[in-house]
Write a structure and sequence with these properties.
Blueprint: E1 26-31, E2 42-48, E3 57-58, E4 63-70, E5 72-77, E6 83-88, E7 92-95, E8 101-105, E9 112-119, E10 125-126
Antiparallel strand pairs: 1-2, 2-9, 3-10, 4-7, 4-9, 5-6, 5-8
């Protein structure tokens, strides 16, 4: 049976880390071109250790959907990353294409875990880093 004639399962622990990353953010592909015949979809997990934040980045032409599995996140965007939204377990978020942003784990003791989905794939364009002092309420672990 051909791979495109049946469902493809990625078992726990078998995801691929061979995908775009943002400054130490742990992205793992569950469904994507790294490990399935998927050509127009990327779906995976993202893990932020306590007090971690990503580099400023955008996702090119990709639309992004995210769901917070556990933890507390703050996503910054806008001029000098002065705008933000807080999310916690159970919250969904949509990020339009080309929006410069970064995400922070607001806890210094607990991990933050996301599910993320992008079309057409996991595009990550890292941007120059900024000083933590610009990020309202954020502190590293």
């Amino acid at each position: 049976m051909a791979a495109n004639d049946r469902p493809i399962v990625t078992r726990k622990g078998e995801g691929s880390s061979n995908t775009g990353q943002s400054g130490g953010l742990r992205l793992m592909t569950g469904v994507g071109p790294q490990n399935t015949p998927a050509a127009k979809l990327w779906f995976g997990t993202a893990g932020n250790p306590p007090g971690f934040r990503s580099l400023p980045h955008h996702h090119g032409e990709a639309e992004t959907g995210a769901y917070v599995l556990s933890g507390r996140a703050r996503v910054f965007w806008g001029k000098d990353y002065g705008e933000f939204v807080d999310l916690s377990a159970g919250d969904f978020m949509f990020v339009p294409p080309l929006i410069h942003h970064l995400e922070c784990n607001m806890s210094t003791t607990e991990e933050l875990w996301w599910l993320a989905c992008r079309t057409p794939e996991n595009i990550v364009v890292n941007l120059p880093d900024i000083d933590d002092a610009l990020l309202a309420g954020y502190r590293r672990a």
